[in-house]
Design brief:
Layout lengths: L5 E4 L9 H5 L5 E3 L3 E3 L10 H5 L5 E4 L5 H9 L2 H7 L2 E4 L8 H13 L3 E4 L7 H4 L6
Helix pairs in contact: 3-5
Length: 135
C-alpha cells in the first residue's frame, strides 16, 4: 500500500508549458509528447507544480504526516474535545495495517489526555491486532 500524497493531472486542461517540470525538486513530472508522472514521492510540503500551472491542470492531493505531525494537527482541536468529551477516531479502511504509526500516534494522543477510538472492519491479520491492547 502507498499512502503518499499524489499528483492529480487533468490532461484536457494541460497546455504542456512544462512549468511544473521546471519547478519540481524531485523531477516527478516530465512533459514531452505525453506527460509522465513518475511513481516517486513528492516532498511533504511541496505543491510548486500546482502553483505554477497556468490552467490549474495539476493538483497535489493528500498529505504526508508522521505521528508527531498528525498529533500536532489534532491538538488544535483539543479545546473542542475537552468541552464535548469527544476525541480522535482512527477509521477509513484498516488502520491497524499501519500498526506502528497507529501505536505511536495513540501514545502521543493519550499523553495529551485525548480520548481515542479505532474503528475498522477487523480484516487485518491477527498478528496486527495482538500488538495493540487498549488501556
Amino acid at each position: 500500500m502507498n499512502y503518499e500524497a499524489r499528483i492529480l493531472l487533468d490532461r484536457d486542461k494541460c497546455c504542456k508549458c512544462a512549468r511544473c517540470e521546471a519547478v519540481c525538486p524531485v523531477k516527478k513530472i516530465s512533459v514531452g509528447e505525453a506527460i509522465d508522472i513518475k511513481p516517486i514521492p513528492c516532498l511533504p510540503e511541496c505543491s510548486l507544480c500546482s502553483e505554477v500551472c497556468p490552467n490549474r491542470a495539476i493538483e497535489k492531493i493528500g498529505s504526508n504526516y508522521n505521528p508527531v505531525g498528525l498529533k500536532d494537527l489534532l491538538l488544535k482541536d483539543k479545546p473542542f474535545y475537552d468541552v464535548s468529551g469527544g476525541g480522535v477516531t482512527l477509521s477509513g479502511g484498516e488502520p491497524l495495517l499501519q500498526i506502528n504509526f497507529v501505536i505511536e500516534l495513540l501514545k502521543l494522543l493519550k499523553r495529551n489526555n485525548i480520548n481515542t477510538l479505532i474503528e475498522q472492519q477487523d480484516l487485518s491479520p491477527g498478528k496486527y491486532r495482538s500488538r495493540y491492547r487498549p488501556g
